[in-house]
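Put briefly, the fold is written as integer tokens. The lines below illustrate.
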Amino acid sequence: MPARSSLPSSSLTRRAFLAATGAGAVAAVSPRVLLAGPPTPAKDPAFNTANLVARVTGYRFQLSQWMEQHKKTIAATDEVAWRAICKEIAGAGFKAVEVWEAHAAPETLDEARARTWKRILEDNRLTPVAYAGGLRPETLRICQWLGIPHVDGGLRENTPEKATALCREHGIRFNIENHPEKSAAEILAKIGGGNDWLGVCIDMGWLASRGAAGPATIKACAPFVRHTHVKDVKQLKTPGAHETCLLGEGVADVAGCLAALHEMKYAGWYSWEDEPEDRNPFDSAVRNREWIEKRLAG
């Protein structure tokens, strides 16, 4: 595996770390072999382990220091730590998990260790359904090892053409997660309009932080919306601010977003995401899981 000495500086935000993107149009590509994904969710929310970005610092951090937390999490996540995380997720009633890159990082995870990670997931009856991270050959291989069908995050240095070729080669899809984008057109442009391999992961919180209407953006990105990050955020204090909160208590119109997904017959997972800077997300995990389940059942 190539050397990994070119990690971004600790002052970068999550999006700056994940996404150095290219532009260009990509024609629709018929998949050769797609990694078989988990069954269609029976309205079960997934737990995004990026929620635990502040776990290594006592659930206190600043969003601008995301990359520093990323590196600390990589260093702290051994077998014991991963087992404890999975046990706590299962204890909160979740059956599915989106694995954050820092918890299954190319810097430390080889195939043998991945088997251990997968066994721990199975021991806790957790299904890995997505990989929250950047697109590169190393993360695609981790998805193969863990049985995860898609990466959801940033394109890094890949153009849509290169990204399509990488995904096709590994049999793993990629979904661009919106962060700075303010419209469906901007989101889709990052993946050349979308194809069988490249789709969209809607982050409801970041749409609100950028002043975009969540439900309308979701509908405009169909049929390429293949994954979702169910997140709410507080009213902006400063331009570009992004402070998460309990679902339904912020300005992201999460209920409206879920309704829009239902209307378009969305068949993907609903990954709960909440990266608080000053509290333990497990304190509200059951409440937020039940909040999502109630609206999906309605």
